[in-house]
Amino acid sequence: GKRWRTQALVQQLYTLALSKVNMIFFQNPDDAALFKQRGILRDDAPTCVVNGSGVDTTEFSMVDIPKGPPSFLLIARLLGDKGVREYVQAAAQIRINNPEVRFAIAGWIDENPDAIKQQELDAWIASGTVHYLGRLSDVKPAIAASSVYVLPSYREGTPRTVLEAMAMGRAIITTDAPGCRETVVDGINGMLVTVKSVKALVSAMQAFVDQPDLTVQMGRKSRELAVAKYDVRQVNAIMLSAMHIH
To answer: Which of 52, 70, 144, 235 has the most Cβ atoms closer than 10 angstroms to its Cβ?
Structure first.
């Protein structure tokens, strides 16, 4: 219905807008493939896939993992397709046998039709399942206070908050979905889980609860990966080169 017509219009506008450009940048290979599959781009269209918008690895520097039980953090707009509900359901299951484990959420509710309802958020807070941090102007203290960063999103470009958490030396749990899967080498700097699977999320979280040393080991790998692949200076250099700006 209305959603399909809107999507068709947007696709036509993309096709028109990108028909004569010199270079098209994508933040992950899945999106580049999707645009070609849908005929938005011609086969010989000039494209360049970059590693997201990058992260300033100087500003977001390595911070030691806090002492004590693992603590999990999700930063996102409070939308269903960010995996917020799956995160809360997994947190509730983990806390049955591990009430000392902390789960935090930072973000905000907006007018998006997919937004979490205020009543839902209030119920999560009242139950003690999650600590709600509100909308943060500076995410660094929240990341520093956590030991594992979680983003169970259904799809992303390249999630900036994941890159920031990686740069600060945090293990990552995210989905095997476009834009997310590129940030994690499964079992090295974090864990990839199936989209919309609370069971898979619980399993990944429980691994960090049972083996807290993983947070340190995988956190170091995240930092190494952020510096090697996602530093904003490298990303910018690739884009400038592709645009023949030196």
So the answer is: 70
- Residue 14: its H or E element: helix 2-17
% of the chain exceeding 90 in pLDDT: 92
Residue 243 in tokens: 């645009």
Q: Mean pLDDT over all residues of the chain?
A: 95
Residues in the chain: 246
Question: How far is 21 from 136, CA to CA, in rounded Å?
Answer: 37
Angle at 137 (CA atoms; ends 60, 224), nearest 5 degrees: 15
Radius of gyration from C-alpha coordinates of the chain: 19
Tokens (6 digits) for 15:
């096709």
pLDDT recorded at residue 110: 86
Q: Rounded to whole angstroms, how far apart are CA atoms 72 and 77? A: 17
CA distance 113 to 54: 29
pLDDT tops 80 at residue 246:
no
**Pair 19, 43: CB distance under 8 Å:** no
Q: Is the pTM of this model over 0.90?
A: yes
> Under 8 Å CB-to-CB from 243, ≥6 apart: which residues?
22, 23
Rounded CA separation 162/222 (Å): 10
**What gap in Å lies between CA 123 and CA 117, rounded to an integer?**
10
pLDDT-based confidence at residue 52 (cuts at 50, 70, 90): very high
Residue with tokens 């069971």: 199
Measured distance CA(147)–CA(30) in Å, rounded:
29
